[in-house]
Design goal:
about 110 residues; alpha+beta; Alpha-Beta Plaits; 4-stranded antiparallel beta sheet; 3 helices; 4 strands; globular
């Protein structure tokens, strides 16, 4: 399994818009791509920092999803304070637990 991690600073007043875009545009775009393995969004409530992680079955799947990532970054203009720092990783331990509820209270 492979991961792409985008770390960025968010405009705090656009948080709700960012979450809506995540559920309505970003995740569906990734779900349609071969090898998609999951999406994690981490937001620090004490700062403007956020981390988005996508998981992929193979390194090739991750690399071929790069155009989606670039398009989604474009969609987030005005939401992000600056372009994200993008890093790629191999997942060496992945132990999934129970599914979590969405941040908006739905499953």
């Amino acid at each position: 399994m492979y991961a792409r991690m985008n770390t960025a600073r968010w405009n705090p007043h656009t948080r709700e818009r960012a979450l809506q875009m995540t559920f309505e545009k970003i995740i569906p775009a990734y779900e349609r791509h071969p090898g998609y393995g999951g999406y994690v969004l981490l937001l620090d409530n004490e700062s403007d920092k956020g981390i988005a992680i996508t998981l992929w079955e193979t390194e090739a799947d991750r690399e071929s999803s790069l155009e989606i990532a670039k398009a989604m970054i474009g969609e987030l203009r005005g939401v992000l304070r600056e372009p994200p720092l993008t890093e790629n990783f191999e997942v060496v331990v992945h132990f999934p637990g129970q599914p979590l509820d969405r941040a908006d209270g739905t499953s």
